[in-house]
Design goal:
The structure is a single chain. The protein has about 400 residues and is α/β, with parallel strands linked by helices. The protein contains 9 helices and 16 strands. The strands form 3 sheets. Strands 6-5-4-7-8-9-10 form a 7-stranded mixed sheet. Strands 11, 12, 13, 14, 15 and 16 form a 6-stranded antiparallel sheet that branches. Strand 7, helix 3 and strand 8 form a beta-alpha-beta unit.
Length: about 400
């Protein structure tokens, strides 16, 4: 926050960074410079733009956009171009280092001197905003971060809220800190309710959090003088880092991962970068990557699982064997409640895959379609499942 708590007659001072008193912050509408890039940023930009177009009681007097320039236009850049919003691009090499804040276009500043934007609104921008840039705003800047800070500071907070199996998720609207990412004072913090953590997938959680974040940014701007006055410091206690995710994190390891851990990975990755494993293709004599598109939520109390585990135990006893981790099968006998599901053994049990996608193919298919006609053995066949019938 860029506020000092001195007496109400105090004036604006310039050091290496600009500070403001609470008495200098006036109510909206504000001249806003928006910094963003992607599907997390876009809904907030849309809300600001729609508000700017209101004829009365609007919060946004002027709106310009800062976004990286790329060959494949990001969503924020695309929207700004389509809607005639003025865009300024950071230097592709130096980023925000030496960045010059554009001038406002709606009249002169109130002091008659330099024209300044009132507020920077930053959402999923990807670049640190240095204090040399922040000092060019009358009231500093705010950021919407999709987590309950100080948990999950960093680039991938939505992923990590799922991966950490958090009981509560939400958003934080904070002041921009002039030295560190995601460490500014908290202006507003709201939990997402209701939150069905056992079933919600990444993309739906992203949508819900961004919708909540957009509403929270607009309400923060509406009450900005009071929000600034009541801003509270972030605690360092309980802080966690939400680093970027990668495809290696979405690889299934059947020997070391439990059914619960696999379900968490499914919620985090299945509808975006993909939850994947490998299978040996007998026909092409090569290893193929397959992605899990849909699976059953593990539940040992479910009748399907109960019958499955009973039959697996019978199979292992009958054949004096223990099935290896990664072993899979498909039961085609419709009298079995677990039929037409691809069952795979993990560290502490079995998971059921219902739809998947094979690398090199066009479409997602049902597991039964994928395995049909490939002569894989089931636990109810009069044969032993070979060691080669395995995912890895």
């Amino acid at each position: 926050m860029f506020l000092s708590r001195s007496n109400k007659n105090s004036k604006l001072f310039n050091f290496s960074f600009r500070y403001f008193t609470t008495s200098t912050i006036k109510s909206p509408p504000y001249r806003i410079l928006f910094f963003g890039t992607d599907n997390v940023s876009l809904p907030i930009l849309k809300s600001l733009h729609e508000n700017q177009k209101l004829k009365t009681n609007n919060l946004v007097k002027e709106l310009q956009v800062i976004c990286p320039k790329s060959e494949k236009k990001e969503l924020v850049e695309e929207y700004a171009i389509e809607n005639g919003l003025k865009i300024t691009y950071p230097d592709p090499i130096n980023g925000m280092k030496g960045f010059q804040v554009p001038k406002i276009t709606t009249g002169e500043s109130e002091d008659g001197n330099e024209e300044l934007f009132d507020l920077a609104v930053v959402v999923s921008f990807g670049h640190f905003i240095p204090k040399s840039v922040l000092s060019r705003f009358k009231y500093g800047g705010i950021n919407m971060h999709p987590s309950l800070l100080p948990r999950h500071r960093g680039a991938a907070p939505i992923y990590h809220q799922i991966l950490c199996d958090d009981d509560s998720v939400g958003i934080s609207v904070i002041e921009l800190h002039h030295e560190r990412f995601d460490c500014g004072k908290i202006l507003k913090q709201i939990k997402l309710e209701p939150y069905d953590k056992d079933k919600i997938l990444y993309n739906q959680l992203l949508t819900n959090l961004v919708e909540l974040g957009s509403e929270s940014v607009m309400s923060t701007i509406k009450d900005f003088p009071d929000s600034s006055k009541n801003a509270r410091d972030q605690s360092e206690q309980g802080k966690t880092l939400a680093s970027k995710v990668n495809r290696k994190m979405s690889k299934l390891e059947w020997q070391s991962q439990t059914a619960k851990e696999i379900w968490i990975l499914y919620k985090a990755f299945s509808d975006n970068i993909g939850l994947h494993t490998m299978i040996h293709n007998k026909k092409s004599k090569s290893d193929k990557r397959i992605k899990v598109r849909e699976m059953l939520q593990p539940d040992s109390t479910n009748e399907i699982y109960k019958q499955l585990l009973e039959d697996i135990e019978k199979y292992e006893n009958k054949n004096s064997t223990t099935l290896k981790h990664g072993t899979f099968f498909l039961e085609t006998n419709k009298s079995k409640p677990y039929h037409n599901i691809m069952w795979v053994k993990c560290k502490d049990g079995w998971v059921g895959i219902t739809k998947l996608f094979e690398e090199g193919k066009k479409n997602t298919v049902k597991s039964s379609e994928f395995l049909f006609g490939k002569n894989f053995i089931s636990i109810n066949d009069n044969s032993i499942i070979p060691d080669s019938q395995i995912l890895f």
